Amino acid sequence: MATADVSKIDATNAALRDRWIGHVCWVRNVVTASFVGDQAAIAVAEGQVVANAKAIAGSIEPFYGAAAKDKLFELLAGHYGTVKAYLDATLAKDSAKQSVATDSLLANAKEIAVFLSGANPNLPKDALEGLLQAHGGHHIAQIQQLQAKDFAAEAQTWADMTQHMYVIADALGGAIAKQFPDKFVSK
Question: What is the pTM of this model?
Answer without folding.
Answer: 0.94
